[in-house]
Write a structure and sequence with these properties.
By secondary structure, the protein is of the alpha/beta class. The chain is built from 5 helices and 11 strands; from the N terminus they run E-E-H-E-E-E-E-E-H-E-H-E-E-H-E-H. It has one domain (8-203): Rossmann fold, CATH 3.40.50.1820.
């Protein structure tokens, strides 16, 4: 499989035509990290879970950073394109619908998922971003095809400030995404409520319930 450039885990969906979850781990994770969460998010969905190809002190990531919260934007653009091409190649190889790929990423994985939304409009059917921050600000902003995005961040996150979360939601909305922002009573770690809210959102149309932002 030379075109499948990422080490990855794949499992087909349980029903014909079911969507495929693109699971994107955080720093230091691997292709198995988020797989146990897939049944809690979308029980019938297929799973495509790649391992980040950048190493930071031996820890896999999806793109380089210069310091905590300071990203290598040139590398981010290159890695985002590589990930998008990998997803398309995997769709051809495994036979799933590339138009029904839903990203679910945590931390570094959420950041490259947000970059996919911004740099490759239409590459993702929907996106779930756990503990995400602004990956980059494209100039000009893309015109997104009303892509539904769920941002689930922690109110006491020491890595992603509240204002950064609001900035990310605003950026995605300005580009045309349909953003649902939910807050968790948590820091930079996943809690059960993240999964519960994400599953509810994925089971809906991806639109924000009334009164939620």
């Amino acid at each position: 499989m030379p075109e499948l450039s990422f080490v990855h885990h794949y499992q087909p969906g349980k029903t014909p035509g079911s969507p495929t979850l693109l699971l994107l781990h955080g720093t230091g994770g691997n292709e198995q990290d988020l797989v146990p969460l897939a049944p809690e998010l979308m029980p019938d969905a297929g799973v495509l879970s790649p391992r980040g190809q950048v190493l930071e002190r031996g820890m896999p990531r999806f793109f380089r950073r210069l310091a905590e919260g300071v990203f290598d934007l040139d590398d981010l653009r290159v890695r985002t394109a590589e990930l998008a091409e990998f997803v398309m190649a995997a769709a051809r190889h495994y036979g799933f619908d590339a138009a029904r790929v839903i990203a679910a990423g945590f931390s570094n994985g959420a950041n490259i998922a947000a970059s996919l939304v911004l740099l490759r409009p239409g590459a993702l059917h929907r996106a779930v971003l756990f503990r995400a921050m602004v990956p980059l600000v494209p100039d000009p902003l893309p015109s997104l095809p009303a892509t539904p995005v769920l941002v689930s961040n922690g109110r006491t996150d020491p890595i992603v400030p509240l204002a950064e979360t609001e900035r990310l939601a605003g950026l995605l909305r300005d580009a045309g995404a349909e953003v649902t922002l939910v807050w968790q009573a948590a820091g930079h770690h996943l809690v059960q409520e993240d999964l519960t809210r994400a599953r509810e959102w994925l089971g809906s149309s991806g639109r924000s319930p009334q009164g939620e932002r």
